[in-house]
Amino acid sequence: MSKLILSLDGKTLKEYPLDKERILIGRKPGNDIQIDNVAVSGEHAVVITILNDSFLEDMGSTNGTKVNGNAVKKCFLQKSDVIEIGKYKLTYIREDAPRPAPDFDKTVMVRPAAPPPRPAMPAPAAIPAMLPSSVSIQSDAPPEKTLPPPQIRQGMAAIQLLTGPSAGRELDLVKNLTTLGKPGVQVAVITRRPQGYFITHVDGAKPPALNGRVLDLQPHPLRDHDIVELLGIKMEFFLK
Amino acid sequence: MDLSQVLEIASQSDAGRVRSHNEDSIACDPAMGLVVLADGMGGYNAGEVASGIAVTLISSGMKEVLKRIDPARKDAKNGERFGSRMLRDQVIAANSAIFNAAQSKPEYAGMGTTLVAALFYDDRVSVAHLGDSRMYRLRGEQLDLLTHDHSFLQEQLDRGVLTPEEARVSKHKNIVTRALGVEQDVEVEVGSFDILPEDIYLLCSDGLNDMLEDEEIRFAVHTLRSNLKLAANQLVELANDNGGRDNISVILVKVKQGFAVQPGLISKLMTSFRK
Questions:
Q1: Which of A138, A145, A149 has the CB atom closest to B110's CB atom?
Q2: Reported pTM
């Protein structure tokens, strides 16, 4: 989601996500971005956001609105544009929403005229080859281009041992799956997912405990400063 | 021979994040040592119908034939195990059934399904497949793909038209060149492999391996190998977290111990006579 960053004299004051269609900027309370300064009109300007695009409109303010140093009435905002209202600056940070998943068509089948020979040895990559000449796709729509899977953005987290011989040691949770414990005795796994971190009992007769409660077979969300007890050792989960 | 003591099986099938319904079908029978996974295709609900017929017919057909024939026996002529042959026969029978159903009802016209089916017997596994449903094997820390996709993309890879990097972003990912029920005749690919205790076999639809790198699959199965149900669940979650653009089905089969057929009384006698 795109956002505006309010600053004064190079000092960042606040970030405002452009999370609704109209974001009002002005001096009076009731504005989404309230700037309490005499140079700012009560209702000074508005940022209208439609899908990924944002527009700035001056609402007839006394002292006007500038974008990148030029006075504007109405302006299509582009990446890193700086809006000036009095001495205040609002930097427009454009963040493209993830593109909608392509409409993956269902698996379809083609019938080459004859089964293509499979070379005994992998052919060198540089040799061009003809595609089967009579390929018919049994589908009403051709499949769309595939996008690489979206990157999972997740704040970093770690486990710190609180008791036991290695007390104080920290373990960064850098993988999607991190197992803790001793195989056959007591094993838990911490999974990193887009919606957060989860702990699940994997193996062993006695499940580990989370904040003093023994885990059942379901994944449990981990919150900052949760305490896990495994193999008699207490450890703390924390977000970095 | 009842294999439910030596095989541990866990499975999960999920519609994914994008599709409204699940056209994959799976069946697992630990006693028979049979697992079947099919990814249906075709308009409306025809995909589900095709994958459902495939899984049901192959399971029931195998059950019947296993009552009469020992899969460990070898064909005297070509040395092929009966396990491989019966799997092929059942797949061919299912092909005819789906093809005929597709011909008889207009709403089923053009339906078909990919398939991967594995039969465990006598320290071996036979695997039959069509299309882009796969079987992997985790042995130790290594994951190997035991099936070779019948897909447009794989053919291009085989001929060196595409590099694996190009293949990853190709738009032809979902075009298969062989499937069950689409034509009157079908050429089934059947492979046969030795098993070892602690091996884990993974059968999956392309909804898994299109969303995850092989290394991610390997890491998840290896890390969670002591809890197969959790591993299956985790694979589906990972595929969904990466987009879940297709139905996702996984079957995991762990070999707890070997299951070689004990030599029969007659062959024991024969051996002792020869001494």
A1: A138
A2: 0.69
